[in-house]
């Protein structure tokens, strides 16, 4: 099933997408006792429903504002660096990697993005031009954890996955390089576009997903998830070895070759650019890059 978190005329909600319509999940599923919307995270915590009652009339997709499937404040956004061979080579060669791996890492390179950096489809990616002149894009498959746990063996890992979404791991390259630790350059407000959908695991075949990025319509990244150096079960086993994964945690699995610093000269994002990240079966995550300094991360394109 394909879920969305959304805002409509009647407030926030969670729904199931069929065709061009959203079928809202009844409030008994999506609102806490005090009336606060809990959203998709609550559904994930309750388990992985294959069906939910949809008693209310559908809403046209065009009539809602889509939010990140797990909106801010999100759970952990755990990321993996240098997880496609060609990208690992381009990153080491770019001069922006303060901790080069000599080509291909022998263990997964794990870091995080601040959950406060999450924004939704069609939100504006702030340019932060007083801080960085080197904002870059990274298309990534996002794994949404369903059943949490610690010490999850690789052979059982996929049973802990609730579903999948798209992440754009927007990165300030100069900040990433100059501070020698990736967290800051990966966590600027608005640097984690997520969505548009959260698709349950039963509908996704991990072996052959096409991951693509277009900037202003020009194809920049294109690779299959079969090219991952460390596959999803290996990542879950590695991350959970000593750290309890929780329902709703998202693992961004790494980006393919073709990021801005992979070009000579580099091609960084500019005000007004449109970035589209597409993954087979997961839709297209579209965001524009903001113009004026101080652009609200929640501001619409
Ligand atoms: Mg990344």
UniProtKB/TrEMBL annotation:
<dbReference type="InterPro" id="IPR011234">
    <property type="entry name" value="Fumarylacetoacetase-like_C"/>
</dbReference>
<dbReference type="GO" id="GO:0018773">
    <property type="term" value="F:acetylpyruvate hydrolase activity"/>
</dbReference>
<keyword id="KW-0479">Metal-binding</keyword>
<dbReference type="GO" id="GO:0046872">
    <property type="term" value="F:metal ion binding"/>
</dbReference>
<dbReference type="GO" id="GO:0019752">
    <property type="term" value="P:carboxylic acid metabolic process"/>
</dbReference>
<protein>
    <submittedName>
        <fullName>2-keto-4-pentenoate hydratase/2-oxohepta-3-ene-1,7-dioic acid hydratase (Catechol pathway)</fullName>
    </submittedName>
</protein>
<dbReference type="InterPro" id="IPR036663">
    <property type="entry name" value="Fumarylacetoacetase_C_sf"/>
</dbReference>
<feature type="domain" description="Fumarylacetoacetase-like C-terminal">
    <location>
        <begin position="77"/>
        <end position="289"/>
    </location>
</feature>
<dbReference type="GO" id="GO:0016853">
    <property type="term" value="F:isomerase activity"/>
</dbReference>
<dbReference type="Pfam" id="PF01557">
    <property type="entry name" value="FAA_hydrolase"/>
</dbReference>
């Amino acid at each position: 099933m394909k879920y969305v978190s959304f805002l409509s005329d009647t407030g926030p909600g969670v729904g199931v997408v069929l065709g061009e319509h959203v079928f809202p999940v009844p409030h008994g599923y999506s609102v806490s006792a005090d009336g606060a919307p809990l959203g998709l995270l609550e559904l994930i915590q309750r388990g992985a429903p294959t069906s939910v009652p949809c008693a209310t009339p559908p809403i046209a997709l065009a009539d809602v504002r889509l939010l990140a499937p797990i909106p801010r404040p999100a759970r952990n956004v755990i990321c993996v660096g240098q997880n496609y061979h060609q990208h690992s080579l381009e990153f080491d060669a770019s001069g922006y990697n303060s901790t080069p791996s000599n080509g291909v890492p022998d263990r997964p390179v794990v870091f995080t993005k601040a959950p406060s950096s999450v924004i939704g489809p069609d939100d504006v990616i702030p340019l932060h031009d007083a801080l960085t002149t080197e904002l870059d894009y990274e298309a990534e498959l996002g794994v949404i954890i369903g059943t949490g746990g610690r010490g999850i063996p690789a052979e059982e890992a996929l049973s802990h996955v609730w579903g999948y979404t798209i992440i754009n791991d927007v990165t300030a390259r100069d900040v990433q390089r100059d501070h020698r630790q990736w967290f800051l350059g990966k966590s600027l407000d608005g640097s984690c576009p997520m969505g548009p959908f959260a698709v349950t695991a039963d509908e996704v075949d991990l072996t052959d997903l096409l991951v693509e990025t277009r900037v202003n319509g020009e194809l920049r990244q294109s690779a299959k998830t079969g090219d991952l150096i460390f596959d999803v079960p290996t990542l879950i086993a590695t991350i959970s070895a000593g750290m309890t994964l929780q329902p709703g945690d998202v693992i961004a699995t790494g980006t393919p070759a073709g990021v801005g610093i992979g070009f000579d000269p580099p091609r960084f994002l500019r005000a007004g650019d449109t970035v589209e990240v597409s993954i087979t079966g997961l839709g297209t995550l579209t965001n524009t890059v903001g113009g004026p300094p101080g652009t609200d991360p929640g501001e619409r394109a």
